[in-house]
Amino acid sequence: MKKITLLGDSIRLGYGAKVPTLLGNKYEVFQPADNCRFAKYTLRMLFDYKEQIASSDVIHWNNGLWDCTELFGDGMFTSVDEYVATMLRIARILKGITPNVIFATTTPTHPEYPHTHNDKIDIINTAIVPKLQEMGIIINDLHAIVAAHPEYICEDQIHLTDEGFEACAKQVVDYIKKFD
After folding, report:
1. Rounded to 10 degrees, what is the CA torsion of 89, 94, 98, 104?
2. Alpha-carbon Rg of the chain, whole angstroms?
3. What is the largest CA-CA distance in the chain?
4. DSSP 3-state assignment of 124?
5. φ, ψ dihedrals at 32, nearest 5°
6. CB 95 within 8 A of CB 137
7. Where are the alpha helices (H) located in the chain, listed in sequence order?
8. φ, ψ of residue 76 in degrees (nearest 5)
9. Residue 77: per-residue pLDDT
10. How far separated are the first and last CA of the chain, in Å rounded?
């Protein structure tokens, strides 16, 4: 039985609810019940989750929506430099557990969502993806799925519809199964 770990924000909570069923009984899936929020929170929680993620065969992870959120009109919650540095720390830790690490790009929001803007999402995706690829991390472009289907963004303008979570879950499973 392969051990899979899913880490990430509320987008992961949505697709993560579907992944175990789609994977089937040949896989054991660990994912925190908690929303892993922003990158520094995920980094911190890796210490608490270390026993659960030890000996994972594949780790699939995302962070970004919280990091590029602008709440006070004074810039993103996490600067791009801090985001990249934190994500690289996370990546090194995860690669120390398994060489089979997948990063999912940050999904877009509705253009009218007031706190997380797609130009900032594009900036963080563009900043982190090449650096993770250099480390041998596989990139799962969930951003592209949602950008191609804006109807996947639900009424709250940031999360996905059930159809959107289903589409993302199917792609997550496809990427995990590349390591079979």
Report:
1. -110
2. 15
3. 48
4. helix
5. -65, 145
6. yes
7. 10-16, 19-23, 39-48, 50-53, 80-97, 118-134, 142-148, 162-177
8. -65, 150
9. 96
10. 11
* pLDDT band for position 141 (cuts 50, 70, 90): very high
Please state, in angstroms and rounded to a whole number, the distance separating the CA atoms of residues 135 and 105: 16
Q: How many CB atoms lie within 10 A of CB 151?
A: 10
In this structure, what token pair is assigned to residue 64? 């970004």
User: What average pLDDT score do residues 122-151 get?
Assistant: 98
| Cβ atoms < 10 Å from Cβ of 23 | 18
| pLDDT at residue 121, as a whole number | 98
- Give the type of residue at 42: T
Pairwise CA distance, residues 159 & 154, whole Å: 6
CA 71 – CA 58 distance, rounded (Å):
34
Contact 38, 67 (CB under 8 A): yes
Is the whole-model pTM more than 0.85? yes
pLDDT, tens digit, for every residue of 97-136? 999 999 999 999 999 999 999 999 999 999 999 999 999 9
Tell me: the pLDDT tens digits for 31-61?
A: 999 999 999 999 999 999 999 999 999 999 9
Nearest-10 crossing angle of helices 80-97, 118-134: 40
